[in-house]
Design a protein that fits this description.
Strand content: 5-15%
Number of strands: 14
Number of domains: 2
Distance between the termini: 14 Å
CATH topology of the largest domain: Aspartate Aminotransferase, domain 2
CATH architecture of the largest domain: 3-Layer(aba) Sandwich
Oligomer: single chain
Strand order of the largest sheet: 4-10-9-8-7-5-6
CATH class of the largest domain: Alpha Beta
Order of helices and strands: HEEEHHEHEHEHEHEHEEHHHEEHEEH
Number of helices: 13
Bound molecules: pyridoxal-5'-phosphate
């Protein structure tokens, strides 16, 4: 690596002596420079490490930083809460008027959100959605899709689609080395909680529902797979899933932990015009505070009201998260979504610039994107939309994963497989990244 890493390396040694792993220990490490990054300062779309390097930051804390780092209104609103009410108040015992304001906004913006229940992480919200759907339908299992990520709890992370399955399409752990999420220690019975199907395969879904529909409580999916190399739904797929859910009495839940308040105020459901029965949101909702929510139709959500479904949690309704959510949603909805319009302009500039550089290098590049997320698929013809494996003919996986370390050398931080664009990014951030891409491609 060309960048000096003296202090980072020294800190990494101390870190590794006391921590069991990096804070998130997915196998595809985001240690872009070959070491852990230690950050000293962050502002808007940039971070500075302890060795004095400045990076344009397209990581956005893995999704929450829709407003960029240290947005002044978020900082001020948190400070004023700390000054008057402190850190937390006591979920279930004390409430604030802001709790109401936040839920009113969520209900106004998200099409399926009659009612809201907050918690602190996406993984938690998904487990509650599963529980609600089971209680609502009195059925034991849910359907999920290959490569869609729904948090780290056993029942949503275990196994992969079983191409050999003849009966119920339970996840298989055979050939697990091919599965990014495979790991030891999962509950031996977790696999029986769900069926896993290939994404965008409506026939497989229809057949599963015909055969086992009376066992299925919920279908959960990332309508736009930001966690899934920005994979899109086939035209008509989500609409048909919606119809099937209605026909079979299955709860449709969109995992909008990434897409919620990132694509726009109404998330993927508004973007695609398909309204699920439930959704989970997190990450961007509170611009960096741990905060998430399950939202959905009143008849399902009200199972929580009389405690038929349990939904406790010391930090549910976490006041600092609530305060940050109030500020975030106010900023994003202001001036008829001016912040999103700015962000979309920056994303278009970046996308156009990267395409142009690739063309100048006679390299195929298809940028997979929805508002706020993008993935650079080298080797795919410009304009190719990634919806299913068959679309990946020519995709250069090796060079794709070389992009992150090469960009790092150029002072640009991306995730291994994607970039998140915030409303705080600037033309300069986009232009610097485009110029860096020119040098990156020369070196690849
Ligand atoms: C689509 C999706 N769902 C769920 C989760 C889990 O959220 P958390 O990490 O807050 O538990 C994530 C996290 O990356 C995600 O991207």
């Amino acid at each position: 690596m060309s960048l000096d890493q003296t202090r980072s390396r020294a800190l990494e040694e101390r870190f590794d002596a006391v921590y069991a792993s990096a804070h998130s220990n997915f196998k595809r490490s985001i240690a872009a420079g070959g070491h852990k990054l230690f950050i000293e300062k962050a502002e808007a779309g940039r971070v500075w490490d302890v060795d004095g390097h400045e990076f344009v930051d397209w990581v956005g804390a893995l999704g929450p930083l829709i407003l960029g780092h240290r947005h002044p209104e978020i900082v001020e609103s948190l400070k004023s809460f700390l000054d008057t009410q402190g850190t937390t108040l006591g979920s279930g015992i004390y409430h604030t008027e802001e709790d109401i304001q936040v839920a009113e906004m969520i209900s106004r913006f998200i099409p399926c959100a009659d009612k809201v229940k907050t918690c602190t992480s996406g993984s938690e919200a998904i487990q509650l959605a599963i529980r609600l759907s089971r209680a609502h339908t009195k059925r034991p299992r849910f359907i999920r899709f290959q490569s869609h990520y729904h948090g780290w709890i056993d029942n949503v992370v275990i196994g992969q689609h079983d191409k050999q399955a003849t009966g119920r399409p339970f996840p298989t752990t055979e050939g697990e080395e091919r599965n990014f999420y495979s790991a030891e220690g999962n509950s031996p019975t977790a696999g029986e909680e769900s069926f896993i199907l290939p994404w965008n395969d409506i026939e497989a879904l229809e057949k599963t529902l015909q055969d086992y529909g009376d066992e299925v409580s919920m279908i959960i999916c990332e309508a736009f797979g930001a966690q899934n190399m920005c994979r899109s739904p086939l035209p008509g797929f989500l609409e048909r899933v919606r119809e099937l859910c209605t026909e079979y009495g299955v709860v449709l839940c969109f995992d909008e932990i990434v897409t919620g308040f990132r694509i726009g105020l109404g998330g993927a459901q508004e973007y695609y015009g398909v309204t699920p029965d439930m959704a989970v949101v997190g990450k961007a909702i509170a611009a960096g505070l741990p905060f998430a929510a399950v939202v959905g139709k009143a008849e399902i959500m009200e199972l929580l009201a009389d405690r038929r479904v349990l939904g406790p949690g010391t930090f549910n309704g976490y006041p600092l998260g609530m305060r940050a959510a109030l500020a975030t949603l106010s900023i994003l909805s202001r001036d008829d979504g001016a912040a999103y319009r700015h962000r979309n302009g920056i994303q278009a500039r970046l996308s156009d610039g990267l395409h142009e550089v690739a063309r100048n290098h006679s390299q195929d590049l298809a940028i997979q994107e929805s508002p706020g997320s993008m993935s650079l698929h080298l080797g795919l013809k410009e304009g190719t939309v990634f919806r299913q494996e068959a679309d990946l003919v020519g995709f250069d996986r090796k060079r794709f994963f070389q992009l992150q370390p090469r960009f790092y050398d150029e002072g640009i931080m991306i995730m291994p497989d994607k970039l998140y664009v915030s409303v705080a990014h600037t033309q300069e951030d986009a232009d610097q990244t485009v110029q860096a891409f020119d040098r990156v491609l020369k070196g690849l």
